[in-house]
Design brief:
The chain is mainly alpha-helical. It is built from 3 helices and 2 strands.
């Protein structure tokens, strides 16, 4: 999956550079037209799996998603609730 790979490779590069934080947009959901609901699940599951696989052995302390509008925010919130369990 190329979309998931974009997130993982970015995280790897951030780790190589000893970055403490990284921010992502909703990759490919604009001009490329990737469905936001699917993209949010791919993005979040890729990031979650990366962190789990590295079991604390990463320089990254903060990962942010910078989202353009309410529709995108809500899709990412729903995906996060599904993947992490709704904490509200």
């Amino acid at each position: 999956e190329p979309l998931g790979s974009a997130y993982v490779e970015s995280l790897k590069l951030a780790d190589e550079k000893n970055a403490k934080s990284i921010a992502f947009p909703s990759i490919s959901t604009g001009v490329y037209g990737y469905p936001v609901k699917l993209a949010s699940k791919v993005a979040l599951s890729s990031v979650i799996n990366y962190i789990k696989q590295h079991n604390g052995k990463t320089s990254i302390q903060e990962i942010r998603f910078v989202l353009f509008d309410d529709k995108t925010y809500n899709a990412y919130k729903e995906a996060a609730d599904e993947l992490l369990g709704d904490k509200s």
